[in-house]
Amino acid sequence: MKKVVFIEKYRFGFDPWGLILFLMVMLPNFFWFAVHAPNDVLRKESLTPIVDTIGSVFQVLFIACMCLLINNERSKTDNLPLIIATTASVVLYYISWTLYYAGITSAWVILMLTLAPCVAFLLFAIGRKNLPAIIFAICFTICHLIFGIVNFIV
């Protein structure tokens, strides 16, 4: 049995669906930058600047891997349950932003704003069998969760 070296499983390429997912998740953020919400708690200064910086690095890394790294062994046919779950996560994220702009800033809304996009990215990376993106997305999720809990829930 021939061993497959990790590096040989991947090639550089472009996955437009990775970029589309990223832009779909970022769209409400772009809106938030331009339009203040009624009870805009997310604009306060962060208590976790080091975690935020580390999280930003992992975010750039997982997005780069998600968009530019292709696993040669991924299935040529899409995994419908993962696509549905990824879409549901994005819809939940949009619902959370709608609640936030309605003035609801409960712990559940903040958790959904924090976790729903991370779950979408993780499911997408799992569906693409993109291990580097999965690892970086998990690290980002941990940092993003610490940021959300420390700054807005505790």
Strand order of the largest sheet: 1-2
Proportion of β residues?
Answer: under 5%
Helix content: 55-70%
Structural class: mainly alpha
Low-confidence stretches: none
- In whole angstroms, the N-to-C terminal distance is 53 Å
Number of strands: 2
- Please summarize the sheet with the most strands: 2 strands, antiparallel
Gyration radius, to the nearest Å?
Answer: 17 Å
Mean pLDDT across every amino acid position:
93
- Given the structure, what is the number of helices? 5
Spell out the helices and strands N to C.
Answer: EHHEHHH
Overall 3D shape: globular
Give the structure's gist in a few sentences.
With 154 residues, this protein is mainly alpha-helical.
How is this structure best described in words?
It is a single chain. With 154 residues, this protein is mainly α. 68% of the residues lie in helices and 4% in strands. It has helices spanning 16-34, 49-68, 80-101, 107-127, 131-152, and strands at 10-12, 69-71. A two-stranded antiparallel sheet has the order 1-2. α2 (49-68) runs antiparallel to α5 and α4 (107-127) runs antiparallel to α5 (131-152).
